[in-house]
Design brief:
The protein starts with 8 loop residues before the first helix and ends with a helix. The radius of gyration is 22 Å and the shape is elongated. The protein is an all-alpha fold. The protein has three helices and no strands. It folds into two domains: 32 residues, no CATH class; 40 residues.
Length: 73
């Protein structure tokens, strides 16, 4: 990154179009990971979000007929 090239963090992040806050958040989240680990983490986070949406959809699919049968729909 540009910081390693002698530029300050502020200048380097402005050049890539992110804020200092975003940079430090990324560094905190991914700083100890190599590139492959960071990619795997991102992929797992996306899969986790997809599965949570699926569970929510299935819960609704189960709840709606139950409420309809009880007359609460």
């Amino acid at each position: 990154m540009a910081v390693a090239g002698g530029k300050g963090v502020g200048q380097a992040v402005r050049e890539i179009g992110v804020t200092d806050h975003i940079y430090y958040r990324w560094r905190r989240e991914y700083g100890g990971l190599n590139l492959d680990q960071a990619k795997r983490l991102k992929k797992l986070e996306q899969e986790n979000a997809r599965l949570k949406r699926t569970v929510a959809d299935l819960a609704l699919d189960k709840q709606i007929p139950k409420e309809a049968a009880e007359g609460n729909f």
